[in-house]
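notes to self, project folder thing:

trying the whole complex as one job this time. last attempt i did each chain seperately and stitching them together was a nightmare. two parts in total, labels are on each line so i dont mix them up again. if this works i'll redo the older ones the same way
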Amino acid sequence: MTTANQVVKDVAKQEYKYGFVTDIESETAPPGLSEETIRFISAKKDEPEFMLEWRLKAFRHFMALLDKEQIPRWANVHYPPIDFQKIIYYSAPRSSKKLESLGEVDPELLRTYEKLGIPLQEQKLLAGVAVDAVFDSVSIATTFKGELAKQGIIFCSMSEAVRNHPNLVKKYLGSVVPYTDNFFAALNSAVFSDGSFCYIPKGVRCPMELTTYFRINAQGSGQFERTLIIADKGSYVSYLEGCSAPMRDENQLHAAVVELITMEGAEIKYSTIQNWYPGDEEGKGGIYNFVTKRGKCQGANSKISWTQVETGSAITWKYPSVILQGDNSIGEFYSVALCKGYQQADTGTKMIHMGKNTRSKIIAKGISAGHGNNTYRGLVRVMPKATGAWNFTQCDSLLLGDQCGAHTTPYVEVRNSTAHLEHEAFTSKVSEEQLFYCNQRGISTEDAHSLIINGFCKEVFKQLPLEFAVEATRLLELNLEGAVG
Amino acid sequence: MLEIRNLYASIGEKEILKGVNLHVKAGEVHAIMGPNGSGKSTLANVLAGHPSYTVTSGEVLLEGANLLVMAPENRARAGLFLCFQHPVEVPGVRLDHFMRAGFNAIQKSKGQEEMDVLKFDRFINDKAKLVEMDRSLIRRSVNEGFSGGEKKRNEILQMAVFEPKVSILDEPDSGLDVDALRIVAGAINQMRSPERAIILVTHYQRILDYIVPDVVHVIVGGRIVMSGGKELALEVETRGYDWIERPDEALRAIG
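result (full assembly):
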């Protein structure tokens, strides 16, 4: 009979299933960060002058922070110092001309997507999902663009947006996360490679889920994605982001920035499944994921909802937040974070209430196994003019085994006496009694774990679009596979 | 159908079962009575394979197969069912999903067809009528926020769903009011059949007014000290367990 402890050990030992490296000649910048690097990137991307200027300002700000050693240290994560001069800041899959169809894409690249189970081709098209695939740093294929364009929706790579929609980019890039915001945001602003851009015009309800897949590939290269989504008055969009990266020995830095903006009555639903390489059994290797994600409910009655399922990365440092500026605006954050092996996650959200009668809801679920260390860090701030603000926070932790950790660090700052805040938190273990109860009904211990964990995550999973929810459930099951004979 | 031979079991260092012998044939209902701490619930849990208990010696055969070497889930798949005295909550897992997961795991182990959602839904609706269980409970998380009575009904509902060969009911009557007791007992009676055996563990005689046993055993100090017909239960009811603990007097009384 396999004991619960053994199961936990096996779960903790589960290997990363997507570890392989695609052999594609990269066109890369030499390692290191300098004004030349910034100019190289900007020139490569054929950017207008304003973009280069902005990058340079960000670069100077970043170098000043680096000189003063102002790297954020407050998070409950531990890692050796990063040498920013050893990182390669630009790498593009080699292609001499622009690609019009999938047939022109390097077949090696397509095979990688297939191994990852990314249905870039017909299946996905039939399923009605437009895919903007980001491989390393340059977008290689964008589909369904025509269909979306008919409704006035712009969905393209950030590089294209910079060239083709400079006014929108100029107006909104950095308007939610300025380059002065934090250390990693400054770095991203200086060297961002590519990412997605999306604009939904007034009154348009985007007819399909917009999807982007991110991959990290070239050895030693960082990934600095930049995403900007603007939902104009009364519009709606649901955006999905899913990630997986090949196995690596060397730590890879990822510092993305995502900015969302909703005008009056608009809604953005942003869902993420993150499954980057978490490092080996001893915690060696794995992705460092330092991400700044923030949305601004600029207009009244608008809504931004973040849902994330975080199962990968060696280190996750991420706080998808909402600035509730418009009256009656709503911010939501639903999160599941799984830490096994030696993974560390310090994640949560910030809800900044500025407008009247603004509401926010936070549901955070942390699962720790092996030597995993999970921290929820959240801030609810109610500004003096935010009369009638309302917040509900629930953060729950589930422990598998006795070597892992769960921490909860909620911050509350209220400057308006009419605010209403609720906070609930509990920590539990998958109990022997629960497993025995399942076993007694014929359910194996492995299936029982997955049943109990899925039950624990239910409130978050039900926020995901159906297709993604199935994927998330499968991902957790994969992480628990190989547990019992 | 179920044969227990000289079973010894302990929890930690403490020995609780000290040589239990019991033979239950198909079609029979055996009641096991005993004072608190006599080993009644331990026996039920040991048979189902609860990981907290260690069997130190003895043998248990289920239809001739060695039960004690099987993992708990395999005991369930072999047709053994435990109606829990204190069933746990499984937050976020819908009761119907839970039952279907178990039902299909058992079907699969037998190489039989698994039941799809719609078919299973109809199947459990019929079963729910048997225990007069509110349909809304079936869509709630397993035992979460259930009253004591609802938890017991849920256990009996699952017994009806799994249609086990041997059911061990660990105090299915505790905490029930008279009306609930009547419903639970009625459902159990309906499940009596020549192919099935039931072991009913109880502290009180009351439930045996509704479910008439074929044999009554009294367990004291981890051993079955007395067995008899249904009248033994009444004797226990009037004279208390103290009486059994003085065997000479007890034997005289029964004659």
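what i see at first glance: Chain B has one domain: 2-254.
need to look closer tmrw
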